[in-house]
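Exercise 7.
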Amino acid sequence: MTKIVVFGAGGRAGSRVVAEAARRGHQVTAVVRDPAKYADLERSGVTVVAGDVTDEASVAAVSAGHDAAVSTVFAADADPAQFYTSAAEALVSGLIEGGVGRVVTVGVGTALEAAPGVAVHDTPEFPAEYRGFSVGHSTEIAILGASDLDWAVVTPPPAVLTEGEGTGSYRTGGTSLLPPVEGDFSYADLALALVDEATDGKHHRTVVAVG
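Solution. The predicted structure, written as tokens, is:
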């Protein structure tokens, strides 16, 4: 059994990570801003707590005693660069203080490479109005890379993920876009990859594309 703390546990990806980790018999702490709003997360093996991923002390307090952390955080009303920078910095400092050595975060698919050394968001055809979010989200990579944590940024395709049960499997790659295949990628299958990396990580201190 692995003790996993999940930040952003109330979101589409985070709630599925909580459910998948609990289904496998792991002990899960689901971190949300207001536990009263997330009674649906409560099940055997899951503890729902209040926390703030952008606050180092909060991260340290909720993560102490865990083996690994998963971050699926998203803030639609915040400046992406400011939010993801603050979250990554607080995660690094807070997890180290809490004694957690492994963290798995969700990356943004448009920051994957479309060609060697060229991110999707840097290609000429990429819509300018979406570039700020992609660049801002990917600030976490450099912050994690400068830390002593064992980390993986699990990055789904640059497309809308689907709801539903998923396929029960996924592909992995590296820092580049995966070759396209028929069918969509789901939040459920992303959760599989995130829990796999948190409990039996095969990718260390790197970005890994999943699809």
